[in-house]
Amino acid sequence: MPDESVTTYLDLDLWCPQRGQPVLSAGIDLVDTRRLELAFRRSGPALARRLFGTGAAAVAADPAGAAGMFGVQESVVKLAGGLPAGGRLSDISFDRAGAQVTLTGAVGDWARRHGVDVVGGYRTLRPGLTVSWALALAGGAR
């Protein structure tokens, strides 16, 4: 019997507006929010820029949001089987208002070659721990 709390957190009917598209690949990541905050403090704004590109300061200012976004990026890398040659984590951005993951650069090229759309999301499981996920759905532009 599935754990109802996990089912609630990862209910794809709520988080995946493209219902009906076959899932071709998936990635999931757990992020220790406190470790990420410490890394931002140690490295200053350079790490946030490397991870999040434009708008990095705003993302890094919200520890839970930064952990979720970083986790979505890591989840995309996992579903792709690794970061494509020339790819950067900043090529992966996530619209918190929806579930759409935007891929640019080498990562976007990978998605187009494979004909996938990518969606994702995250939830805080408890203070200091965030779960993030991403799905590669069939039907993307080739």
Defining traits:
142 residues; alpha+beta; Ribosomal Protein L22, Chain A; three-stranded antiparallel sheet; two-stranded antiparallel sheet; 5 strands; globular
What would you note in describing this structure?
The protein has 142 residues and is of the alpha+beta class. It has a single domain, classed as Ribosomal Protein L22, Chain A. It contains seven helices and five strands, in the order ααβααααββαββ. The radius of gyration is 15 Å and the shape is globular. It has a three-stranded antiparallel sheet. It has a two-stranded antiparallel ribbon with strand order 2-3. It starts with a helix and ends with a strand. Helix 3 crosses helix 4 and helix 3 packs across helix 6 (63-79). The longest helix is centred in the middle third of the chain and has 17 residues, at 63-79. Helices cover 43% and strands 26% of the residues. It has helices spanning 4-9, 12-15, 33-43, 45-52, 56-60, 63-79, 105-114, and strands at residues 23-32, 92-94, 101-103, 116-126, 129-138. The model is unreliable at 1-15 (pLDDT under 50).
